[in-house]
Amino acid sequence: MKSKNKKLDTLDTIIGATTSLGGTIHSEGSMRIEGKVKGEIQCAGDLTVGAGGLVEADVHARNIIIAGTIAGEVIATGKIHIESKGRLKGNVKMESFVIDEGGIFEGNSNMKQEEVQEKKEQNKIETVAN
């Protein structure tokens, strides 16, 4: 997805395979997780969880690509894509949802356009304010 805001398309945070973090993470760009994160993730751009990544957190991001594991409430203003080795356990809200063959989803999904649109507007306002 092309964005007019270059910050959102820039991968500015990488959490490596040997790194574990706990707490709340805020990112104005996109991020990739190969290590372990517990807590909460607020990502204005795209979030990618690599094959070795483990996220036990509530996640809010634009688009979310899962090749590893996420457990928690997940909200995407765009798309959630679970790749063939990916696992997602928890309730999700998104605009579109893709699960590749072999990918695992356990939870409830909700594609309510109003809620997703509200989050998009909130992210747009926050991005403009920064």
From TrEMBL:
This is Polymer-forming cytoskeletal protein. Pfam families: Bactofilin. Residues 112-124 have a biased composition (Basic and acidic residues). Residues 108-130 are annotated as: Disordered. Belongs to the bactofilin family. InterPro entries: BacA/B.
